[in-house]
């Protein structure tokens, strides 16, 4: 079985505007692609890719005046099932963490560990340093925030979400990540596709990963469940590092559609 995924995104701008896009499948999933992954633009414009400091594929281009559509369609093999976060998974001592994991303990634009440290330690300081701690943080975030699109605000931080007790999916992830980091559990922000079993238009998904028991575990802060069909696009400290597009000038998003569908026969479009 495979997953067919893709998108069609349209922008309008009055002048030539540089853009950076994180709309490619993450290199860690390249071996699972069953068809080429290629971003197509209309009109055709030059593009080139580079790998950023978090291992993400970044695409650089310049939008011409008028409208520009970015689209993609691909097939990818379903990821092999991973062992869920077991109750016996232990948190690491900071001194024992790999060098490349330490950055995910630090505060960031949307995850202010300095403003949430006292909150985190008052809530979770007495818990054992294992999977119970992580589950308790996620359960607390789920119960603390009223989640809904009517609460969307792109500038909201984890601390503001905690104080306002409202948010959307990215706020749930940011608050869970910030609280984990306050408790010395490395956590990072992830974006990509979430296959729901139909080809109805959807949105890009966000989730978090925590480093515990010597590996990264993907968790959905909304349900605390790892058993979801995900396709990773980008990962980083927070939404700043993983924005699906960043325009360096005024550009208006006029159309946005993301598609995912689980296909029994990968040869059938």
Report what the structure shows.
With 269 residues, this protein is an alpha+beta fold. The protein has two domains: 99 residues, Immunoglobulin-like (Sandwich), CATH 2.60.40; 148 residues, Roll (C8orf32 fold), CATH 3.10.620.30. The protein is built from four helices and 14 strands. The strands form four sheets. It has a four-stranded antiparallel β-sheet, with no helix packed on it. A four-stranded antiparallel β-sheet has the order 4-5-2-13, with no helix packed on it. A four-stranded antiparallel β-sheet has the order 11-10-9-12, covered by helices on one side. A hairpin with a 5-residue loop joins strand 4 and strand 5. Helix 3 crosses helix 4. The mean pLDDT is 92.
Task: Write the SSE topology.
Elements: E1 2-13, E2 17-21, E3 40-42, E4 47-51, E5 57-63, E6 66-77, H1 113-124, H2 131-144, E7 146-147, H3 158-164, E8 166-167, H4 169-182, E9 187-194, E10 205-212, E11 215-219, E12 230-236, E13 245-247, E14 252-263
Parallel strand pairs: 7-8
Antiparallel strand pairs: 1-6, 1-14, 2-5, 2-13, 3-6, 4-5, 9-10, 9-12, 10-11
